[in-house]
Specification:
DNA polymerase, domain 1, 4 domains, 41% helix
Length: 680
Amino acid sequence: MTPLRQRMIEDLRIRNYSPRTIECYTRCVAAFARHFGKGPSALGPEQIREYQRVLVEAKRASWTVVNQTVCALRFFYGTTLQRPALIEHIPFPRQPKPLPVVLSQSELARFFAAIRNLKHRTVLMTMYAAGPRLEEALHLRVADVDSARQCLRIAHGKGQKDRYTLLPPTLLQQLRVYWQASRPAAAWLFPGRRAETPLNSTAIQRCCGPAARRARLTKRVTTHTMRHCFATHLLEAGTDLRTIQQLLGHRQLETTAVYLHVATPGHGMPRTTDLLAGYRARSRARVSAPRPTVAAVITQAADAYDARYGTAPAQRRLLRDVVRCRTAALGGHKQLCAQCGHEVLAYNSCRNRHCPTCQGPARARWLAARAGELLPVPYFHVVFTLPAPLGPLALVNKRVLYGLLFRAVATTLRTIARDPHHLGANIGFLAVLHTWGQTLQHHPHLHCVVPGGGLSPDGTRWIPSRAHFFLPVRVLSRHFRRTFLRLLRAAYRQGKLRCRGRLAPLAEPAAWHRWLEPLQRTEWVVYAKPPFGGPHQVLKYLARYTHRVAISNQRLRAVADGQVTFRWKDYAHGHCARTMTLDVVEFLRRFLLHHLPKGFQHVRHYGVLGNRCRGATLRRIRALLGQPPAATPEPADHLVELPSRDACPQCGTGRLVVVATLAPVGALPRTAGPLAWDTS
């Protein structure tokens, strides 16, 4: 960096310019110097005039680019070089004044519905309902959301100015839905890939065009369109211009007055500042057809599946629970909105761990219990997969084979980590069993979340792993293969394995040993993912794995004509999103492949983080790391004071109160379809 560039940056920082402005000004001055191949201090009025002409005529730069260049050159020559006489040779370009593009509320509802990413949708809904600029919305912190006063604090906005803006009840409800789904780990309300930085603005800008096309909008929609809609709709609802100016953070009233040219007062806009209320109402009105569910598939296919394959008692219990979940068959309660009197019938959950509807509350409780167990160290994600030839044996001996998988993985990780040639420490970790792939085929594998380090053999110090490397994958793979096959042979000798059906020949020891020989030469897949960004990102990541079932209702696209269409991700071809259509009986067969034996623990802790010694070990590790127990960060919960399910779906502001308990009405007939009042 040249001394002149450094001096300009220092001058900008002294005057408290924002980092983005500093980057923009230095880039513009550098482009000016590059055009002439000389240092900017050696260029004068003629070169400045020539460069402006090139920008306007040859490059056809936009007014924004030309204006940024003029501001940068005026600052450089007037402040950094102390040559104020040159400023009069750098005129500002005449600003065009096109009218802003404004969407109607129905168009906005279609636009928001077409945004598939919840975080992106929440950012744009915040810009529309509260009016912040894009960078202001992305730099919101959790503490800026004042739900008690129903206002949103914009800190260090444009011009380094703070202000307060609206926090309508419907936006607060949307933020709570977003919070419960993603639980941002850092102080940022919308964190980026790294928890310490906010979401990049490019991600939001790039989602607008595709969403507008999916919504079939002919208007050009950008992120700033949300602010135009915010101001215009408030003006149409009767809000005075001065109030809108303050909410937008405009310096001059003339800037806000442009919306007088596009607003149509009294043209169908409700007199309210909760702009998203209409969006909610239209969204509910559009949902007429019931969403496809796994329960609907079971209702259609259970009899045909039983006739073709037969159903074990445990499988019948699972199918019965999923069909009855959140229906009148399990009872429930009646809720009444204290504000508008709207009635809601909410039915009880089945709480079966295989049910795709019941996992949210269970996952939330489990993660809340784990929040205090995180350590301020990097975490690694290691995946151990059983080879495909072992799949049929595992299906017949689920309890034994899955138990051996846990034991082999635990032995492998702890043994290799204790080796002085690798880490030389006693480690602890969490292991979660998954038995499915994206297309519901049988694919047993174990997800392990491991802190990056461990206790020394004498327990007196913490030994950290390398920043981006935990243990060698090839060594883990070979040890895992050797350990699992040793345990499998022992189980065979002890008569713990059942060999029936196509596996019946394996009951002969000679055939058994011949069958094992190829497995000794196969490379067993062990995959280690990069470390997480921080401890709280581990919690967010664990939410994807701990209480997941084979397929969720959200992945189902259609259930009709005896077929099921669902989404899946093709990891072999760039993680592309694809759809697959199966016969309902085949879908149900794949779904039941992943039924676990009763009482089988599919989430387990090992090593120094095992259940028996976890509390004492965590206290010792925190002491060695210099982290007192009270310093363990807790997730901010003020966004979820009022769970979204307790908010009235009719008015969006009232709270639902339980007024009656509904008794179970008995088992549903197997031919009955989903009830119209299913609250799932």
